[in-house]
Structures are given as structure tokens and as C-alpha cells.
Amino acid sequence: MPQTLYEKLWQDHLVHQQADGTALIYIDRHLVHEVTSPQAFEGLKLAGRKPWRVSSIVATADHNTPTDHWDRGIEDPISRLQVETLDANIRAVGALAYFPFRDPRQGIVHVVGPESGATLPGMTVVCGDSHTSTHGAFACMAHGIGTSEVEHVLATQCLLQKQSKTMLLQVDGRLARGVTAKDLALAIIARIGTAGGTGHAIEFAGSTIRGLSMEGRMTLCNMAIEAGARLGLVAVDEVTIDYLRGRPFAPKGAQWEQAVAAWRGLHSDADARFDRVVEITAEDIRPQVTWGTSPEMVVPVDACVPDPANEADPVRREGMERALRYMGLSPRQPIREIRLDKIFIGSCTNSRIEDLRAAAAVVQGRKVASNIRLALVVPGSGLVKRQAEREGLDEIFLAAGFEWREPGCSMCLAMNADRLEAGERCASTSNRNFEGRQGAGGRTHLVSPEMAAAAAIAGHFCDVGELLGRKEKG
Amino acid sequence: MDKFVCLEGLVAPLDRANVDTDAIIPKQFLKSIQRSGFGPNLFDEWRYLDAGEPGKEDSLRRLNPAFVLNQPRYQGAQILLTRQNFGCGSSREHAPWALLDFGFRALIGESFADIFFNNCFKNGILPIVLPAAEIDALFVLVEATPGCRLVVDLEQQQLRCPDGRVLSFVVDSFRRECLLNGWDDIGLTLRHADLIRAFEDKRRIEQPWLFA
Ligand code: SF4
């Protein structure tokens, strides 16, 4: 029987299946960070259990760590305790790799895993973090889990799971100038909704996806969770294999050849059946900007804020009205006229080297608008940061008036000092525009790195495609 | 984990779709390394008029009188009625911990986000999915009936309303067993330790690069 990629991965990790379909799934890679692991390690200890296979663990501190003044350590005592608890737990049990605070390879767990080659095709990858879906870009069955499940994986190397339904997101055609994987992700969420993928594993396929870099594919799979799907997938191709070659934890020599041969089978069979198919034409997509407090509240940059009066469903209408009140916007206001206070380029969605290059290309030779109080660039990892510095990107950002920070989650969720104050409005390359996400009362608009860079220069939203066109002509 | 068999409790309505886990328990409270104590900060930004911080004395803060859970008629509620996609966003298990700590044992909604749904079962909270029309009717009933109590019977998979209506729901059989008995997943899984070991040994030979 022809199989989808998801079905192949499921079969390959199936340890045991009960009559009702509940299955024991083997976990190859367990990513750990400081926020969702302390209670799991504690639970393990209390029950007198030992971790099953510590060589599956890759750990880093990312959510709580400051992005400046690293010489001062972590000043917030509660954050510090959490990071120190991770240190102590990993020291006690061991791991394949640990990138603690201030390590040159420390960074956001979803950036660090792939760049170190700890994420390999065909793996199951889990982490106490919903954006674990990112790793699906490598044809991994990768998804977020809760802390009880973190403990379950530590103790048993397995998870109890039910097989998901499958959805094929077929995207064909060429993305226009200034339209990125982020815009594609937001356009998909606009189309299927934030609950559209619930219960499904989404496979992204088609010529547009084949044309994306690994960074772009990671951005797309990262946002699969915002479409309600637990996991996103992209089949293995030359782009995947080229990305992995030579990474520290990637296989070497004869094992590399053996692995590559196996990875080449990680795609859906030609006539595999999906439970749902959605087709998208790449040419139709424009740069996207969210206007509300859910990622599905999104429109193209040249559109206006929608009018709740046109929404027939009362629950949705009320949701829109509440979002507009929170965001301080009025119906039918042009997106381009929305003025911003802060800019955030970072997060596990868009903080990889390619994202920083794209943003720097927009910023180069320009200045951040005077109404912008703070424009932050936070690289996804120490390695991304140093690569960018080798390419001189830091200087481009600094010359324009951006701040160039140390790696971490930063203002994506504002657990450290980087945050929005109440009422402040931010163009952000992160993944969630929920109320209070970037700071209590803060207003978040999700965009691509290029769009965030363009908004920093203009002081309000604008079409980065046009800005780039002008730059070339001028 | 506490068992869940049958619960008779007061219902509070939260008439919003897409309630995310950032709203259920804001990020600043995730710095705790404990599993308990999150109840006072459940829905923190909606419940209080001032900003909450870990270590701040919550009993001295100003409550938002407009927020539904602050209304006297819903004090002591154990059942939360909501709309679609409750619990979307972050995987933080602090969200069910906060709901539990506040006193909720059952949630009734049109749909729940996957990871959150799963996390509920690990903590003895029963999330019940009902069709939109039944959810609508329950909202009407709860608004109209002061002190509206429901019986949530997991054994029978039934919801019994004060007006005599009985709604049935379905819970995955394995999860139901676990809740009814208060079983610990890890203990159950470790009964298959031999199978896991055999699977792992085979995998180590077939795909050795996964075990570097
Ligand atoms: S960058 Fe943001 S979304 Fe990504 S792991 Fe960190 S907090 Fe979560």
C-alpha cells in the first residue's frame, strides 16, 4: 500500500500498539530547555526512576536568558534559579550535548538542534515546547509535549500516541519578490484557520516548497503549530542532505552514505492518500501582516483592517471586536498606515542566518525611523551570531540604529527583560500575536524579517517588495 | 494522579474562542520550578486590573469586576464551559496545572488544541468535546440558571443538566481507563520495558547513526 511520509515515520517508530489504537512510539531525540523540564526531572527523582537513554538528550537554556550584559549573569533571581536547575539536572543525568547559558553554541533550542546536526531525517524529535514542529523540515516526526510527557520520555524513551490524520498542503509556483516562507505560513493559516490543522500532521509539498532553503522550510514547519497541527513535514531532498553534510552530530564516512541512502526514502509515495488536501498557488501570496490577536487574523500588507460588521458568525465577530480593541485599531484602517514603536527580528521562526541576511539587505544604507523606540535583532544562536558578524551583518544593523543582541528567545515571549510595555506596538518576526505575549498590554504584528526591516525604516508597515524595487532603481 | 469518575459541580462560562495558554497562565509565572501554586494567576491578565508578577501578593491586587470568573455567582466553579480551540499555543503544562489549582476538574468546549488536550488527561482534568449546537445551548442554560450545576459522569460518558437534559460524549477508551483509575502512564509504559529494549537494539543495528 502506498504510504504518506507521516505513515512511514509512524511505522518506523512503533514499539507496540494496543487494540484501541493507542501506540507506544520510540523517541530518538529529546530536546530540553529550562522552562518545561524542572518538574519532569523532579518527578523522575521522586519516583526513583532513571533516565532511559541520556544520549538522546540535547539541552540548552534559551527562554529566560538575557540578551545583553552577559558579563553580569542572569540578574532576575527567579530566572536564574530556573536556569541553574537545568544546569544541575543535566549535570546529574548527562546528555549528548548541553549548551548552557553563555556557551558559544547556546541558542534557541529549535535553532541549535538542526545547526548542530542533532536533528536528523527520520527521527522522532520531541521537546517540551510547541514549536518543536520546526524539526519536521527534516522529515522528522517532531512535536511539542507537556512536562508530564517530558518525564515520560525521560523515563521510558517512548510516548503514548494515537496516529494523526494527514493533510497535504500542496504549494506550487514562484513566490513574488519580498514574499517569504513566513508569508506563506501566514497565508496558509489565513486559509485553514488556527484550528484547521487540529488532529493532523501537515505535509508541505509542491514546487514552491522544493524551492525553499532549509531555513525557509523550518519557518514553515515552525508555524504548523499555529495552524493547529502538532507537526509539519517536508520530504528529504538534496537541499536537506546538503544542509546536514559536515554538521557536528551528523554521521560521517560510511555511516553518512548509509544514512543518506535511508533518508532518500523519506517522502510520501506517489499515490499515497491524505485525509485532506489543500492547494495553494504561490503567485497569489502577498507579504502578510497580522492585525489581531491570533495568527489567523492576517491580511496582505496592501489591505485594510477588516470590519467585524461584515462577519456573520457572532462568536467570530466578538473575537474580532475584542482583538481590535486590544490592538487599538479601527475597522477599514489601511495596514500601511499602522505606525510602530518597536521592531523585533528574532525567535525560532525567523532568527537563522538567512533571515538575518534578508533583513540586513533591506536595512543596508538606511536608518531606522525616528518614531521607533527600539529595534532589536536577536540571532537564534551563538553560531548564527558569529556567522552574521563574519559577514558584517551586525555592522549593517548597528549603523541603521538596530541593537545587536546575544542569542535567545528574547521578546518572542518576554520572559527576560526584552518586552513591550502596555500599548506599545511591535512588528515582530515571531510566531504568536496573543494578548500579552510580548509583554502585558503589548501589541504584536507578525511579519517576515524583510517586512520587519522595512517597517523599521519606514516607521510604519510598507510593502518590502516595493522598497527593494525602489532601491534597485535609485 | 487523582481519579476522575463522576463530578457534580458549578459551571462557569468563558464565552471566547481560541483561548490560548498565554492567556491561561502568562509567561512570567512559568519561571516557577514547582507544579503547584499557579491557581491565583490563572487568566491573570483578564482577572486582575494590575500587572501580575511572581512573588507579588495576589490577594492584595485589584480584581477586574467585568471578568466572568470574578462574578460572585461563579465562585467555586469546577467546570469551565468554553468555545473552539481552547488551549491553543504554547505546550506549557502550567496551563492545566493552573486550571486544576484554581479548582477546575472538567472543561467543556467545541474543540481543544492537541497538546493542551493531552496535558489535561495527564493531570486528572477531563476535557469534553461537544458539537457547536450543544455548546450554544449550554451557554444559554448556564447564563439563565443561577448556580447551574452539571453532573459529569465519565463512567457513563454523560453530562446531566439541571433541566433533565442528558448529553453524551465520548472519551478515548485508554484515556478514560487511566482517568477512572488514576493510573500513572509511566508505570504502565514500563510494563513494556522489554519491548522497548528489543526495539531499541534492533534500531541501533539498522540505523546506528541515530545512536551516536
Ligand atoms: S523563540 Fe519563542 S516560540 Fe520559539 S522556543 Fe523561544 S519562546 Fe518558544
UniProtKB/TrEMBL annotation, chain A:
The keyword 4Fe-4S applies. Keywords: 4Fe-4S, Amino-acid biosynthesis, Branched-chain amino acid biosynthesis, Iron, Iron-sulfur, Leucine biosynthesis, Lyase, Metal-binding. [4Fe-4S] cluster binds at residues 348, 409, 412. Its cofactor is [4Fe-4S] cluster. Pathway: Amino-acid biosynthesis; L-leucine biosynthesis; L-leucine from 3-methyl-2-oxobutanoate: step 2/4. CDD domains: IPMI (cd01583). It is an enzyme of class 4 (lyase). Coiled coil: none annotated. One of its GO terms (molecular function) is 3-isopropylmalate dehydratase activity. It catalyses: (2R,3S)-3-isopropylmalate = (2S)-2-isopropylmalate. Pfam families: Aconitase. Its EC number is 4.2.1.33. Residues 7-459 form the Aconitase/3-isopropylmalate dehydratase large subunit alpha/beta/alpha domain. Gene3D superfamilies: Aconitase, domain 3. InterPro entries: 3-IsopropMal_deHydase_lsu, Acnase/IPM_dHydase_lsu_aba_1/3, Acoase/IPM_deHydtase_lsu_aba, Aconitase_4Fe-4S_BS, Aconitase_4Fe-4S_dom, IPM_dehydratase_rel_enz, IPMI_cat. Binds 1 [4Fe-4S] cluster per subunit. Belongs to the aconitase/IPM isomerase family. LeuC type 1 subfamily. Catalyzes the isomerization between 2-isopropylmalate and 3-isopropylmalate, via the formation of 2-isopropylmaleate. PANTHER family: 3-ISOPROPYLMALATE DEHYDRATASE, HOMOACONITASE, MITOCHONDRIAL-RELATED. Heterodimer of LeuC and LeuD. This is 3-isopropylmalate dehydratase large subunit. It comes from Candidatus Accumulibacter contiguus.
UniProtKB/TrEMBL annotation, chain B:
It is an enzyme of class 4 (lyase). The keyword NADP does not apply. Residues 1-132 form the Aconitase A/isopropylmalate dehydratase small subunit swivel domain. Its EC number is 4.2.1.33. Keywords: Amino-acid biosynthesis, Branched-chain amino acid biosynthesis, Leucine biosynthesis, Lyase. Heterodimer of LeuC and LeuD. PANTHER family: 3-ISOPROPYLMALATE DEHYDRATASE SMALL SUBUNIT (PTHR43345:SF5), 3-ISOPROPYLMALATE DEHYDRATASE SMALL SUBUNIT 2-RELATED-RELATED (PTHR43345). Catalyzes the isomerization between 2-isopropylmalate and 3-isopropylmalate, via the formation of 2-isopropylmaleate. This is 3-isopropylmalate dehydratase small subunit. It comes from Candidatus Accumulibacter phosphatis. The gene is leuD1.
